[in-house]
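Try this one yourself first.
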């Protein structure tokens, strides 16, 4: 059997240990099959690490912006909002299964974490709304009725006794 030397590991191996450059071609790749696999896996691992690093950085940036924007919302206030919205997304009306909220004025535009800027929101609307101008986005995707309804949600304030 024909032998070929791998340019990566330097081993002399039978030709069937090399991938062909093209499916029906006669030329073989300079690296052996196991070196190709090894390098592909290394590339994957490096890219997962890079992706993780990027996610970590964007989460850190988000936390920094949140801290800079300021504001505070308590669990009771969150529950109050959810209860007043019948546990539904304030935008599309989808039933919410957890404590999902949206910053009405986006975090990136300085939106604070407080009553008046927090609305119950499904993950889909949250993702789609992103950093769009809220009014423009609502009028584009929904209608004036939705905008008026959300303004009411933004103006909701619990009665004093609620906190006692
Ligand atoms: Zn090799
Ligand atoms: Zn929604």
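Now uncover the answer:
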């Amino acid at each position: 059997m024909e032998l070929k030397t791998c340019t990566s590991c330097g081993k002399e191996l039978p030709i069937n240990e090399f991938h062909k450059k093209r499916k029906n071609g006669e030329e073989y790749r300079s690296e052996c099959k196991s070196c190709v696999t090894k390098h592909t896996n290394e590339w994957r691992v490096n890219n997962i690490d890079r992706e993780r690093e990027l996610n970590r950085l964007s989460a850190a940036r988000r936390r920094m912006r949140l801290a800079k924007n300021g504001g505070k919302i308590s669990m009771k206030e969150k529950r109050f909002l959810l209860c007043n919205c019948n546990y539904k997304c304030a935008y599309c009306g989808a039933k919410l299964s957890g404590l999902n909220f949206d910053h009405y004025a986006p975090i990136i535009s300085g939106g604070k974490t407080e009553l008046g800027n927090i609305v119950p929101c499904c993950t889909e609307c949250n993702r789609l709304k992103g950093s769009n101008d809220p009014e423009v986005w609502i009028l584009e995707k929904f209608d004036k009725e939705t905008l008026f309804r959300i303004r009411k949600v933004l103006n909701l304030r619990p009665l004093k006794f609620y906190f006692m």
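Discussion: The pocket of zinc ion (ligand 2) is lined by residues 89, 91-92, 94, 121-122, 124-125 (CB under 6 Å). The two ends are 86 Å apart (CA to CA).
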